[in-house]
Structures are given as C-alpha cells and as structure tokens.
DNA sequence: CACCGCTTGCAACATTTGTTTCACAATTGC
DNA sequence: GCAATTGTGAAACAAATGTTGCAAGCGGTG
C-alpha cells in the first residue's frame, strides 16, 4: 500500500469536516491498515469516536456505507505491487467493456498478478536449485498428464533443443511411462500435476521415489500429494476467474526452468543450438523469411 | 508477509488432518491475506467448507478459537516492510545472488509486462470476435506444431472438456493434418505459429484457406505469413531475455479463448462438465482428496 | 452384524457487526 | 434573542459473526 486509497481525497476535504469527523478521518489517515483489519466499531473505539461518526465519514467520502471503504483498503493490502490508481483505472475500464471482454481482461489481470508473485525470492531460489539438480542429472524424465501436459512437454521440448538427455514420459498405446524403469539415482524426474491430481502421475512418482530417483515437483501447493515425494517442490497457483483453472503460471515456470538448465550447459548448449539450426535448414522445416538464418542462432531456434 | 505465520506448522501436520480440515488448511495456505481480511464464515464459503471446520482447524493448530488465528495473520500484515522497501530489498538480494536468479526474475518481469499489454482494448475485441467465430463453428481444427504445440493442444483440450467439436491436427506417423480434408466453410481452423514459422503449418493453413475454411491465427505479428490467410489474427509477442523465446503470452491467449468459447455454450457446457466429472470418477482418473466430488463440478474439472 | 471412534453437516446460540433513528446540543443567521 | 440548521450521542434494529452441541455418516475391528 504505497499510498493509501483515499488519502488524497481525505486530505483535500479535511478542512470541510468538523470536529468528530476529523478525528475519524485522522484515524483513517494514520492507520490505513487498521481500516482493513479491524471492525468499524473497533476503529471508532480507537479513534475515540462514535460508530455513527465513522459512518458519516464514509458517507461524506461518497460511499454507501463503511464496508466499501474497508474493501478499498483491503484490496490495497491484497496486492501491494499494483497501485491503487491503476486498479481503479482497470476497474473503470472493466465496467465499460462487454461481458466477454470483461472476463478476458479479468483473467489477464488475475494471471498477471500471479506471475508477479513468482518473482518472490524463495521461488527464485527454488527454481535455481531445481535447475541445478536438472542440469547435473544424467537424464531428465518429464511427466505431466492431462491438464499438465503442456508444461511437461514444454520443458522436454526446450531441453531437447540443447541436448538429448530429456525424456518425455508420454506415448501412445498406454506405454507412456514405461521408460521410467530405467531411471536411477543419477537421473531426475520432473513431475507436474495440480488439483485434481492425476492418479497415474502420483503412481509413477511414487515408483520413482521408491527407486531413489530425485523428484522435482511442479504443483499447486506445498501440501500437494506430489510434494511429499519431491526433493524440490515448486508451488504455484492455478486460480482463475473462469470455470477452468489456468496453467499459465506453471507454464512460465517450466520455461524458466528449461532456460536455466540450458544455460548451465554453456558450450554444449551453443553447439547444440547450432546443430538444431542446420538440421532444420536441411529439412526446410521453417519458412524462409530470409536467405539463411546464420547469425546468432540463439534467438531463432524454435 | 514473506512466510505466512502458520505455514510451516500447517505443512508439517497436514497429513494428520482429514478431508475437510485439509480443504480449510489449503485455503489458509493459499490465501494468507484473506485469513486476515475476511470473516471466518466468508473464508469457509470460499474454501467450500463449513464454518465449524474452520474452527476445528484452528483448534488443531492449538488455538482457542479462530480469532487468534486471524489476529496472527493480521499482525503479519501490519508490520511487514512496505512494498516499496521490500521491492528494494528483493532487488538488492537479487544482485547479491547468482545470475541465474536474476535471469529468472528478468524473464518473469518481461512476461508480466507482455501480459499486461494483452488487455489492450483491441486485443480484447479480437479475442471475443475470435471466440464467437469458434463458438459458431461446426468443428474447430487446432493446429500448432513444434514450439506452438502447447498452445494448440491447450485450446483443444479445454474445448474437448465441453464438447466434441474440437479436433487436434496432430498425430503420429505423419498423419497429423490429414483430417483437415474434412473441413469446410462451417468449420474454423485455429492455427498457431511464431518465428521462425513452421512451413507445414503455413501449408496446411494455405490449403484450408483455399477451401474456404475460416482461419483464426495466433501468431507473433500482424504481418506474419499466417495473418495473410486469416479471418481474424491475434498477435502477441514472444520476446524474452533468454535465448529461447517465450510462448507464455500465446498460452494465456489460448486459455482465454477456450474459456470464452466454452462460456458461449451455456447449458451444454455445464452438462458436459458434469459428464466429464462422472466419467473420471468412474475411471478413477484423479486421486481422491475427498470422498466424492459432488458439488460445483465446474472448478474441479481437470 | 454390532460396535467403535472419528469425521462431517446442520441448526441453534449469544455476540458483535454495520446501520438507522431520533432526541439533544451546538452553532449559525437574522 | 430566537429559530433554523447542523453536528453529536445513545439506543435500537436486523443481519452477520464466531461458537456450540448434536445427530447422522463413514470406515474399520472384533
């Protein structure tokens, strides 16, 4: 809460208030957090004012009652990162939009907020730890079924660009997980699942865990069933304003993880990327948007 | 609130809890701020749990009632360094730590910025227009190869939850695109590719376009080769501080698109979701975190 | 099968909440 | 000085809150 929501408004019209209302306003200005955390009556008590006075203040600020005021302060505390003004602006725009566009905007806003949370220090530490573990592994087994498939696939895909040590545990004819048999202590199993947890994923993780294979878990909670078996657990959220949960935060995490792992490869990574390029050039995989993609292959790899 | 007050305690004894209490504990873990800001009953509602269960959780944690718990969380919110200081501190820490964490943070920041741009007005219009087109289509063909696979797959997956009109143009033995032969004017082809554009994707889009099949293109530029053939083009960025471009913005767009399309299904969507649930219940696809998932199947679908 | 302990949902409880109402006091204008 | 307006305090209200107690349900044991 960089600048408390109503601070400006209150300060401007403060002189217009009288006696008791000023006391109430002072309290709000001085204890913005308490506005959200305490009941109105309790605030009145601490401000040395009657409950009615609190209400009068709220009304003078243009609100229906005191709850809207508390909500405003509560929201400011919920996501300290984004400023109140911006939120207000977004809110404003939301109301001007149609239902579908509003929903779309809401989802974007929600996901954005969740992404911001990913850069918390502990998360970064976990990520880099996991990256190190994966980078040192002889083989990386990627496992993500159903809704978690894109995440596991993405990690495997990027890792496959820079080497051949990644194995995607997915295949037709129900043989997808068979290769986990060859995993050992020197390998790592990267497993993804979120609520409702896919039973097969848990089973495979269980199997690997019993065999002593280190597990990097990407899931939705530190108390997820995956976390129990995991050496390192990366937790993220999946909440969304829509009927379907979002896998986007997990998706970025996988991308970042992959990039970090690849980065530890140094020279081998560069060499591999060069090979990928010439390979695809030979096969004509990509449309030729220009003569030949030679320089800085890094940015061009798909 | 860097580490929420009771997080450790809850995580440690989580396995000892049972059923409903776990749900309550999950909520507390996932929404620490709401613990302080909302009434217990409201939290119970959001956690999908009886108020009594919240109380039982509090008792199991060694508290007299639930208010002490809320107080603990409230205090944690009162004191913490202001977000500004915290940001500065995080920044500081980032520089002290390895370059890997800095890179991770940079990627997150970059993607976050790109996501914010997605809620621009025109984007939203394009999205909803595309959603309407897809919703009205008899059949939706999803096409995304190589790096674009997760995006096409995700759209197809979500659409498959709520109906059977989506077809993923991907298969083994190089037969992935064969089914596009059956597409006509009443269908829609959803195609994804970004630089460097996959030749095969362009070819298939070309084929469909010539047959009069409307095309919704998700790509990285309004002048991408895809855009030329498209009825509606949704453009996004793929830039990333790392060697590998990010597919995350495209991924959210696909998720949102899917949700919007599903939303236009109304009753059929709800019915389909119920079916998905009972189907998976019969097969035991998901781990049973509780006796039986009855109410509000919507949130539980994976 | 009956029994057990344990968990879960429900309805009821006394408080506390935000709000309304109204009488009284203070202030203002004439 | 008096009337009118405004500000204040206290009591009363319905609604919502945290909490309690109990009955029904569950799975396992003898």
From TrEMBL, chains A, B:
CDD domains in the cross-refs: SIS_RpiR
GO molecular function: carbohydrate derivative binding; DNA binding; DNA-binding transcription factor activity
InterPro entries the UniProt entry points to: Homeodomain-like_sf, HTH_RpiR, RpiR-like, RpiR-like_SIS, SIS_dom, SIS_dom_sf, WH-like_DNA-bd_sf
PROSITE patterns reported for this sequence: HTH_RPIR, SIS
Domain HTH rpiR-type: residue ranges: 4-80
Any one Pfam family match given in the protein's UniProt record, by short name: SIS
Annotated keywords: DNA-binding, Transcription, Transcription regulation
Annotated GO biological process: carbohydrate derivative metabolic process
Domain SIS: 130-267
Name the record gives this protein: DNA-binding MurR/RpiR family transcriptional regulator
Organism annotation: Roseibium marinum
